[in-house]
Amino acid sequence: MTLIAPSILSANFGKLAEEVILAEEAGVDMIHIDVMDGHFVPNITIGPLVIEAVRKATRLPLDVHLMITNPEKYISDFVKAGADCLTVHVEACVHLHRIVWQIKEHGIKVGISLNPATPLNTVEEILHEVDLLLIMSVNPGFGGQQFIPSSIDKIKRAKSMILKGGYRALVEVDGGVKLENAREIVNAGADILVMGSAFFGEKNYKEFMEKLEKELKL
Ligand code: DX5
Ligand code: ZN
């Protein structure tokens, strides 16, 4: 089964709680929250306060994608705010193993993420420790970018690495995922699809989910 995680980056922030409730009613599986610091990526978005507000609006798992440098400084803030899974970028962590364990010690799920140009072998020594491998299919920083086609092969290789090792990690794909390419991405091995502009750009989220389910034959 494919899990759908709409990214609130493309939601209407003026009525964020309402947007999250509508997404939940449409049948999504989790809420993807993009945290950007203006250092690791060239954009600034939201922090723990907004996550706390989203936490109050929904019971769905909050899948928090940290695109920040020095994530170790903020782990407990994001846990307190209500994150169910914290994903850090491999490129932002000098001591990735330490940070993975720091997150695990809070009793929540942990994910690691790779930018498009970062090779898969950088996670070889840690993949067995994590719940999620997030493959970025755009350069992180903004919603509404084009899916990078070579990501398909990377997703395939990531999935086979996980299957070969017998690991539990799910493969999540983030960036440029749309109704039109969702099936190809799932066929390549994605377990979770993040959808920002494709989801929140629709008028009717329920209808969109129906179309998507048909497309994926969930
Ligand atoms: C990009 C973010 C994504 C973004 C995806 O840096 O990590 O989660 O919101 O947006 P779309 O689906 O519009 O590419
Ligand atoms: Zn994201």
What does this molecule look like?
GO terms for molecular function: D-ribulose-phosphate 3-epimerase activity; metal ion binding. Keywords: Carbohydrate metabolism, Cobalt, Isomerase, Manganese, Metal-binding, Zinc. With 218 residues, the chain is an alpha/beta fold. The protein contains eight helices and eight strands. Helix 2 (48-57) links the parallel strand 2 and strand 3 (62-67). The longest helix is centred in the last third of the chain and has 15 residues, at 151-165. It is globular. Zinc ion is lined by residues 7, 32, 34, 65, 174, 194.
Layout of SSEs?
Layout: E1 3-6, H1 16-26, E2 31-36, H2 48-57, E3 62-67, H3 75-81, E4 85-89, H4 96-104, E5 109-114, E6 132-136, H5 151-165, E7 170-174, H6 182-188, E8 192-195, H7 197-200, H8 205-216
Parallel strand pairs: 1-8, 2-3, 3-4, 4-5, 5-6, 6-7, 7-8
Helix pairs in contact: 1-2, 1-8, 2-3
The structure holds D-xylitol-5-phosphate and zinc ion.
D-xylitol-5-phosphate (DX5) is lined by residues 7, 9-10, 32, 34, 65, 138, 140-141, 143-145, 174-177, 194-198.
Brief summary:
The chain is α/β, with parallel strands linked by helices and 218 residues long.
